[in-house]
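Chapter review: from sequence to fold.
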Amino acid sequence: MSEWDAWIGREDIRRDRVSNELATRWLATLDREAAADSTVPQGLHWCLCTPDAPTATLGSDGHPRRADSPESWMPPIPLPRRMWAASKVEFLAPLALGADIERRSAIRSITAKQGASGPLVFVEIDHETRAEGTLTARETQSIVFRDAAPAGAPPSPPPDEGHFDPSAWDAHRLLIPDEALLFRYSALTFNSHRIHYDLPYAMQEEGYRGLVVHGPLTATLLLDLAQRQFGDNALTSFAFRGLSPAICGEALHLALRGDCDSVELRAYSADGRSIMSATATA
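The token string follows.
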């Protein structure tokens, strides 16, 4: 029996509302126009039912200290670093402005592994999002916990001399994420993880060469590319996996190919390194 088995099935229920103000700020962050009808494009659900831990309960990295919350529904895994590694989403109905939202989350599995850099713990969480009682999205989210970076470890190296070639893709967008974009997305998701806004912390404590672009922000940008190609709320499924961090101020290439039955999406760095892989159906 695993030490974490008692946490399997533990639930969390949160409520929110798709307000005009939230939708307007989210669209402004992505430089998007509002839809012609009362719906909002896919991806806004990651900005709903956000964490609301008191500031006094945050740890040195900006995340809530799990050990301080014995009643929390998340297990007190002792590994300090966490990241949103992957998600699989089914889109069942569009979100409409003004809709009351309920998100029910439950821990599906907790798996300990030994990686090249040390121990890892993967937590899979099932989310169901309902709007006015109607199921609009199902998602399985994978979170990975790992050990802290070794003391004195140098920051990750800059991109090498390679380059990304968009010629094999049907759609391509070049974006350079800046501090304002990261700040706005942190505000939209109430994300206080310091790797997204505190440069000395990101470099000296966690070993990155700059501020880190949020994984769900990169996923949202890939969703946005798909919606520019196929139209808003056209996707029925979307799955992504983070492969390496995207860094603020560095070129981010967003690419798409395929038709409605099978869509492949990727995010690449300037040197052609894969940052995120994704698939979708419309």
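Two observations follow directly from the output. The radius of gyration is 19 Å. The chain has a mean pLDDT of 91.
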